[in-house]
Amino acid sequence: MTLPHTATQAPPSPPGKGFAADSVGLLSMVSLGLASTAPAYSITVTLGLVILAVGHLAPAALLVGFVPILCTAYAFRELNRTMPDCGTNFVWITKAFGPWPGWIFGNWIPQIATTIAMTALAQVGAVNLLSLIGLQRYADRTLPVTCLGVALIALVTAVAYRGIQLSALVQTAMVTLQLVALLGFGIAALAHHGATAPSLSWFNPFRFDGSGPFAESVLLCLFIYWGWDAALTVNEEARDRTRAPGRAAVISTLVLLSSYLFTAVAALSFAGTGTTGIGLRNEDNVTDVLAALSPAALGGPLAKVVQLAVALSAVAALLTCVVSTSRPNVSVAVHGALPRAFARVHPRFRTPTVATVFTGALAILLLTALTATVPSFLGDAVLSIGLLVCAYYGATAFACTWHFRHELRDSPRALVFKGILPVAGGLMMLAAFARSAVDMIEPSYGSTSFGGFGGVFLLGIGSMALGLPVTALIRIRFPDFFRHGRSTVTDQLVTED
Questions:
Q1: Rounded-to-10 torsion of CA 224, 225, 228, 229
Q2: How far apart, in whole angstroms, are the C-alpha atoms of residue 7 and residue 495?
């Protein structure tokens, strides 16, 4: 059926899910989008690896890695304008391509990626908090870290359960601290007479030495931008829910780009790319740039503030994961593709009940299972997230263009924002997926290997492939959705500007 470009607003189908409408503003949604990426943590653990690959061209890699993210953000924005459903990817991909792709790429893959990320974030938050309070001897032990990680997941699950306003307030405070800490570090680093003066040549993507380092650095940059789409999962609780969540997603990506570029330039200028001392190619500094540079740039007391920001960055992202994962589960249940219990919303807090508790419990189960069996599996599982992110971001971008295919000739705006940019984003995500898979298949990639294949590749592709039998079982349990899903998922037509 061809959708009209302009139509009167139709009632949503299915009806409201019980959330507190008009309770989240643009600033809160931007905070959710930023918090989910864990900017302080992401830049400190990734920047050194990017510099190891391309040296002073790290800012150029950050710019190039941002392009598919921005294109995909516009796809999310356009889809949300027409279908502002908290199911986001699940609803949009189902509407465009049908129930099977919708369930696998819109629900299964994002859920797996987020749950794996939660286990890593819990560990990172636990290690940094223990180190911050002077308990470094416990930060190096698996059992104390795992116990504290479990406690952090339980804490953020309780906060998420108590209401979106409380969650948004906590997120805004923690994100503000992160951005202030990054800004303070950057200013202090640039104020020193460091190793080298900033140069515009650092932003030139045509100076990469070969495709290998270029592709590796861009893939790393894709990971540090992942998570901004969390802003759209609260679209049914937003003020001006057809437009504000999409704007929040785009604003989040632009804020991330600005903060990452500023931090990268400051770090490069201050420390350089040497292999000794505070040099950013020193193996001791690569995986924790801010911890290595902050004492020299800021001094001991202020360096502790940066360390606190990194710890809270992980905790804030953990909270956002619970918020942004539970709400899509409500939508999936309401649309008839999960047990109805997942659709329950607390009558007072207006938050998902079963879905929120399930999200936290699943992350706790995975964290304890991985650390109790082979701890190195967890590191490889985290590395495999890149494959999953490229898969579902790319599918959503293509879903945007396919859904609006009959509108692309209506106006230049429709052609650009519903056609060209989403397709470009989808193709770049597909290319990143292919490149990642080729690199990860090598047995030397990551910490584990099986049968001549890298453990990271097997975990990534294996978790995606597992979605097929799981979806087959879901189809048996919920046959109506798989017969009629495309025609029954929420379809709100709105008048566009």
A1: -110
A2: 6
Rounded Cα distance, 122 and 117, in Å: 9
Q: Tell me the per-residue pLDDT of 399-415, one tens digit each, with 9 for 90 and over.
A: 999 999 999 999 999 99
Instruction: Provide the 10 A C-beta neighbour count for residue 473.
Output: 9
Distance CA 260, CA 92 (A): 30
How buried is residue 304: exposed, middle or buried, by Cβ count under 10 Å (0-12/13-18/19+)? middle
**pTM of the full predicted structure?**
0.88
Q: How is residue 8 annotated by DSSP?
A: P
DSSP conformation letters of 234-298 = GGGGBTTTTTHHHHHHHHHHHHHHHHHHHHHHHHHHHHTT-SSTT-TTSTTTTT-HHHHHHHHHH
CA of 186: how far to CAs of 36, 76, 172, 268, 308, in Å? Answer: 22, 31, 21, 10, 16
Radius of gyration, CA atoms only, the chain = 22
Q: What stretch of H or E contains 449? A: strand 449-450
